[in-house]
Write a structure and sequence with these properties.
By secondary structure, the chain is of the alpha+beta class. The protein folds into three domains: 221 residues, Glutamine Phosphoribosylpyrophosphate, subunit 1, domain 1 (4-Layer Sandwich); 186 residues, Rossmann fold, CATH 3.40.50; 65 residues, no CATH class. The chain is 42% helix and 15% strand. It is built from 28 helices and 19 strands. The strands form four sheets. The protein has a six-stranded antiparallel β-sheet. Helix 2 crosses helix 3 and helix 13 packs antiparallel against helix 14.
Length: 628
């Protein structure tokens, strides 16, 4: 894995200072501790930091074509590079390295932008074509690898793997975007269609950007998107066999490495599935690692040990203390933008543990989004059935009133005994789901934001992106729409950002086999009953894995990484929470009295505001670091 950076002048080929490119690349040096390179030409510069994985001794970057017309800086892995190499050689291409980077140069020469459709991998790259006088930026289908860019005051377009690479350029204006603050407070992360620094954009998953000399910078083009509108046919058994074949191949293709490789193992369905197929494909014991917690209710080490024993892995584990908040500033530095998914602390620790033994680790990320594994999908499915029984007006009056005035509905089915659920039933399905995936509601944010911030937002509301995505989704069912929206926002903005930044912070490459695009496309085509049945998410996946994994692994309640932030703000971090009301940074957007009340009520146990306080702490520290 690597870090890239660069600069391009589309209007006129201004000279590019190689020291400036080097400074941008060095800002992401943690992504590539094994090597560095800078290449410049009139009007363009590319920088690279390398983490050597394949063709360790060769494939230096930026890499140029034999005739000097093409130069590329590439972050990622192309898993089908050997097949593409053979295809390109049949077309007359002559390769001088054995890695995957050179495939991009020959692929562009023969197919142009259409080569993206042939790539199976995780990637973000910048390719300069001297003949066409252009720079081509591209990001992989699911958004595993990041790419930020911004137009500068001197006409240049700067780009980098992480925001800190752009911040190393002196012409980038450092001004916060209040809309991104609203988005962050709603979701706990800044979505990919926003950035905390005004004017900076993130190239979206499955998009590319062709910047040509003499032309204005265009809007990015979408080259891939997940489609939930198709339906696979065939028996459950046939679909199960197809799913197994796809998962097996996805894991095998991601085990190609010239450096030590292992995997994360939580003892849940997804990581255990990856271990099962790795063990099947490997002649040696698979290296696995697990993070445990010193709180029994949140410790999954026993399940992980059970899976490790079943597949005779070379297993290591480490216990993380419940008060492991010393990592806060490390995470702030790694993420740049504020990021409040508290499981990032545990993810960082498991990456740190893995890096002691391996350079590449496979992850189970993506199966919940692809196969409807989250409990919120089950709730959305049930709620939509009830919504369909009543006209919208009657439903809004009935359930809205119940939700406001009847806190405990004992007469309702078990899944509906919740005030928030009753309120959700009174709303449109897209609106209800947009709220369900959030951390704070619009009403809660309105209490926190100052009057000036509300005016500056000018009607911008974080939930609207989810509502639009669900209503415009290529989908047949409410679950399709919810999953589609999560692929657009939650997956790249939270899950993949978390894994990328924490793994790269310790120089570890993380690979996500369960996000192989062929597997994702297959999962999206499954009938809803194959994804969600009898209250079980990932139904077909679990049935398929019954031949490999015991039922207490497959069908136990999902635990996940849990960080006790609420307890922290009633204990060791209580004074930090109280101090938020005095923060000059937060005072730019929030009412100090509202923050003080929030912290005091939480500390006294009058209310539960742990997650919101965690958001404010991470926001305050991120803003201090970025804007001073």
């Amino acid at each position: 894995m690597c870090g890239i950076a660069g600069l391009y002048y589309p209007a006129t080929p201004k000279p590019v200072d190689p020291h400036r490119i080097r400074a941008m690349a060095d800002a992401v040096a943690h992504r590539g501790p094994d090597g560095a390179g800078v290449w410049t030409a009139p009007g363009v510069g590319l920088g690279h930091r390398r983490l050597s994985i394949i063709d360790v001794a060769g494939s230096p970057q930026p890499m140029g074509s034999a005739d000097g017309a093409l130069t590329v800086s590439f972050n990622g892995e192309i898993y089908n590079f050997a097949a593409l190499r053979a295809e390109l050689q049949a077309l007359g291409a002559v390769f001088v390295t054995s890695g995957d980077t050179e495939v991009l140069l020959h692929g562009w020469a023969h197919w142009g932008p259409a080569m993206l459709d042939r790539l199976n991998g995780m990637f973000a790259f910048a390719l300069h074509d001297a003949r066409r006088q252009c720079v081509f930026l591209a990001r992989d289908r699911l958004g595993v690898k990041p790419l930020h860019y911004a137009e500068l005051s001197d006409g240049g377009v700067a780009f980098a793997s992480e925001l800190k690479g752009l911040l190393a350029h002196p012409l980038l204006r450092r001004e916060p975007d209040i809309r991104a603050v609203e988005d962050y407070m709603a979701y706990g992360y800044v979505p990919d269609d926003a950035c905390i620094v005004s004017g900076v954009r993130k190239l979206a998953a499955g998009h590319s950007l062709l910047i040509e000399r003499g032309k204005a910078v265009p809007a990015p083009s979408r080259w891939w998107g997940v489609d939930f509108s198709r339906r696979a046919t065939g028996s459950a058994k046939a679909l199960e066999e197809e799913l197994v074949a796809l998962m097996r191949e996805a894991v095998r293709s991601r085990m190609v490495s010239d450096v030590p490789l292992g995997t994360f193992l939580s003892g849940g369905v997804d990581s255990s599935t990856v271990v099962a197929f790795m063990a099947e494909a490997s002649s040696k014991a698979v290296k696995t690692c697990t993070i445990g917690f010193d709180e029994a209710g949140h410790d999954e080490r026993g399940y992980a040990a059970q899976v490790a024993a079943r597949f005779a892995t070379d297993h290591r584990e480490r216990v993380v203390a419940a008060d492991d908040f010393a990592l806060i500033d490390t995470l702030v530095a790694a993420f740049d933008e504020p990021f409040a998914d508290a499981s990032a602390l545990a993810t960082y620790r498991v990456c740190e543990l893995a890096r002691e033994d391996v350079t590449v680790a496979l992850s189970g990320d993506g199966a919940d989004e692809a196969m409807a594994g989250y409990r919120r999908y089950k709730f959305q499915h049930a709620e939509e059935r009830i919504r369909g029984l009543l006209p919208p007006g009657m439903r809004a009056r009935l359930f809205g009133t119940l939700g406001r005035f009847y806190p405990k509905a004992d007469w309702a089915p078990q899944s509906l005994r919740a005030k928030t659920t009753l309120l959700a039933l009174g709303e449109d399905g897209a609106e209800a789901y947009a709220r369900a995936v959030g951390v704070t509601t619009p009403e809660q944010r309105a209490l926190l934001f100052s009057d000036g911030a509300k005016r500056a937002l000018n009607g911008h509301r974080a939930e609207d992106r989810y509502v639009r995505s669900m209503r415009d989704a290529p989908a047949r069912d409410a679950i399709d729409r919810a999953q589609y929206a999560d692929f657009q926002h939650w997956l790249p903005g939270d899950i993949l950002t978390k894994t990328d930044r924490t793994s790269m912070a310790v120089g570890l490459e993380a690979r996500e086999p369960l996000l192989d695009y062929r597997l994702v496309e297959f999962a999206a085509s499954l009938p809803v009953s194959m994804r969600l049945r009898g209250g079980q998410g990932k139904w077909l996946m679990k049935k398929a894995m019954e031949r490999y994994l015991p039922s207490d692994i497959l069908y136990r309640r999902k635990m996940g990484f849990v960080t006790p932030v609420s307890a922290w703000f009633r204990g060791a971090l209580a004074d930090d929470a109280a101090g938020l009301a005095k923060s000059r940074v937060l005072a730019n957007w929030f009412d100090p009295r509202a923050i003080a009340t929030l912290a005091a009520d939480h500390r006294a146990g009058r209310a539960e505001h742990g997650r919101t306080l965690w958001q404010l702490v991470m926001l305050e520290r991120s803003m201090q670091r970025m804007f001073g």
